[in-house]
Amino acid sequence: MLTYVLSPVFNGLFSAMVIFLFATGLTLIFGILRVLNFAHGGFFMIGAYVAFSLVSLFGSTESMLSYLLVSVASGLVLGGIGLLVERFVFRPLQKVDEAYSLIATYALLLLTEGAVKAIWGVSFHSAAAPSALAGIYIVGDLFMPTYAIFIILLGIACYVFLEWVLQHTETGKLTQSIASDPWMAQMLGVNVPRFYTWIVVFGFFLAGIAGGLLLPNQTISPNLASTFVVQAFGVLIVGGMGNIRGTFLAAILLCVIDSFGSVYFSEVPGMFFYIAMVVMLLLRPEGLVRGARL
């Protein structure tokens, strides 16, 4: 009987950490620049394709070290792309209404999908998890894949690290100050435009490394951009629009509820994520964590 509770919780935590890893860069960029990057899924997709290309070029990700190195390399490539996007897309968008940023980043999403089709084609690709993550743990009737455990622990570690940096370091305090009042930070001598540039680069780096780390979790195709993006925006909104802690909590809450819903109402899988999202927005429209960016 306990398995009917633990299994949905475990599956929900796994889905939550997948979405959180995907949404972290999106949350940082919106929390500081206030640019709602609709193309984030497209750059995550490019990160996955870059990782797949590196695997194809240099061999499989059988070893844990090669899997991690490929993911970091993918993040670095996306960070370089983020430098260009910030200069030519995000920087001009800061001077216009947010509606224009939605249109521009959606166009950017279409551009990434076209680029993927032109470079990698429309075929489906996949890569295996490293051998160290290919096993499974069995506790009673509960089956826990090693890869899922790794992603759960990685997502929690990522949240703890970002929370620590934001709350307990000078860089984090500076980040929150710029997010709250960039004009005052500029008056105090902070180079806000340069800071924005590095935030975008870091956000894109996170998207790229997430694409590499989550490569064994899905088959990649030009449709991958839309796989997580709606749910990512869901946890971003429910969490409190640009708040790392809120995004983390919202991902867990929505995904665990959806996991239970998919078990007991298997004819409508995924529906309870959106039901829970609507209910949370009705009960707490300001978000789970309100009143603070990041």
From TrEMBL:
This is Branched-chain amino acid ABC transporter permease. Its main location: membrane. InterPro entries: ABC_transp_permease, BCAA_transport_permease. PANTHER family: ABC TRANSPORTER ATP-BINDING PROTEIN, BRANCHED-CHAIN AMINO ACID TRANSPORT SYSTEM PERMEASE PROTEIN LIVH. It comes from Hoeflea ulvae. It is a multi-pass membrane protein. It is found in: Cell membrane. The chain crosses the membrane at residues 12-33, 38-58, 64-85, 146-166, 195-214, 271-289. Keywords: Amino-acid transport, Cell membrane, Membrane, Transmembrane, Transmembrane helix, Transport. Pfam families: BPD_transp_2 (PF02653). The keyword Isomerase does not apply. Belongs to the binding-protein-dependent transport system permease family. LivHM subfamily.
